[in-house]
Design a protein that fits this description.
The protein has 125 residues and is an alpha+beta fold. 41% of the residues lie in helices and 22% in strands. The chain has four helices and five strands; from the N terminus they run βββααααββ. This is MbtH family protein.
């Protein structure tokens, strides 16, 4: 049903911003909305390929964005105890990241400031 090149399809998207195609002659399943007019299958697939550049569901993207924000806020709170508040406010994200990296030997940060991987220290039992 979804591989018939002679059928008109709709590009559909759900609440998680995941895309698919759906035969235009059928009712849309619950939770899905059509995007644009009916068109040939390949046109739908080409459209999806051009707009769906991040395959992660919306909730996952938002959770990751919010966790980075919370980590940044927590880091600023810790640093505010070590650095004058005016100096802290004037720091660029790069300066803040460098300061955190110098204080935190257990974490490796990438150029974008995100944690790359844990770097466990030598713990003895």
């Amino acid at each position: 049903m979804f591989d018939n090149e002679n059928t008109q399809y709709l590009v559909v998207v759900n609440g998680e911003e995941q895309y698919s195609i759906w035969p235009a002659v059928r009712d849309l399943p619950d939770g899905w909305t059509s995007v644009g007019d009916p068109r040939p299958r390949q046109e739908c697939l080409d459209h999806i390929e051009s707009v769906w550049t991040d395959m992660r569901p919306k909730s996952v993207r938002e959770a990751l964005e919010n966790s980075g924000s919370l980590i940044g806020q927590g880091s600023r709170m810790v640093l505010s105890q070590l650095v004058d508040a005016d100096d802290l406010k004037a720091m660029s994200p790069e300066e803040l990241r460098d300061m955190l990296a110098s204080l935190d030997d257990d974490v490796i940060y990438g150029d974008d400031g995100d944690v790359i991987e844990p770097n466990p220290g030598n713990e003895t039992a």
